[in-house]
Fold this sequence. Notes:
The protein is α+β, with helices and mostly antiparallel strands. The chain has three domains: 4-93, no CATH class; 120-185, Helix Hairpins (Orthogonal Bundle), CATH 1.10.287; 194-343, 2-Layer Sandwich (Heat Shock Protein 90). 61% of the residues lie in helices and 12% in strands. It contains ten helices and seven strands. The chain has a five-stranded mixed beta sheet with strand order 2-4-5-7-6. β6 (326-332) and β7 (335-343) form a beta hairpin.
Amino acid sequence: xxxxxxxxxxxxxxxxxxxxxxxxxxxxxxxxxxxxxxxxxxxxxxxxxxxxxxxxxxxxxxxxxxxxxxxxxxxxxxxxxxxxxxxxxxxxxxxxxxxxxxxxxxxxxxxxxxxxxxxxxxxxxxxxxxxxxxxxxxxxxxxxxxxxxxxxxxxxxxxxxxxxxxxxxxxxxxxxxxxxxxxxxxxxxxxxxxxxxxxxxxxxxxxxxxxxxxxxxxxxxxxxxxxxxxxxxxxxxxxxxxxxxxxxxxxxxxxxxxxxxxxxxxxxxxxxxxxxxxxxxxxxxxxxxxxxxxxxxxxxxxxxxxxxxxxxxxxxxxxxxxxxxxxxxxxxxxxxxxxxxxxxx
Length: 345
């Protein structure tokens, strides 16, 4: 018969004995006990009570030791990838809670392992896509260089050399993005946070891309409720965030870009901050997963028809997080809105 069969009756008996002892704990109670019985019988009663409580305590300790030993052996023999969980073979006080806590830790560890495997698989697929993006312009450049060597017509040779140079420039841009991501993801990358005027940073980036806007027939919009607003940021890192967001809008958007800055309110859950929204139309909103937009290599996985490595927005998100900023995206109909929330000075 299992020791647990006796455990619950033993608890009830010990509980009743304890109540009796507490009710009879005064000197007058003991005196009445001894007066109502012979001295020897009183001593025997006390001795039996002490012996019973001692045996009960030993029994309970033995049950704890047995149960803990069983669970320790289970954990020592359990394979790391196994779905097996601890079971509670006893109703000892605290044992069920301990088993539940251990199982919760095992579940959390398994969830982390699965997430790590998913991230590793995603990184591997993204890296393969990026290597394809790098090889494509490199192969094209080599082909044009080979043609240029064999070309006798100077004009055509110049065209072929220019085409090779353009493909090498594209490859260089992809490598720059990869390097930027590595730096942004490095927690040791130094950032000098200070007071940065927001408007000059936005204007500088937009003006730098004005020829591209003009080529598309777009007129970018810049609106600030307070033109003198300043944010806590590293100026170079903030400019890189804005640069990547503008490049993304140019590369994947289908309409003019609007950049609007306003004080953060209650709906932004960020009182005392500054909200900067980058919005423009996209041709196929159904092809965009706004929740995954800042994932590493997302664009490389989602579409090979457009330029880019899928690292630009991921770099922006890493730099934003390093400065205590928040970067998010949402779709409003056919319009993609990317929101940057920074701390105001």
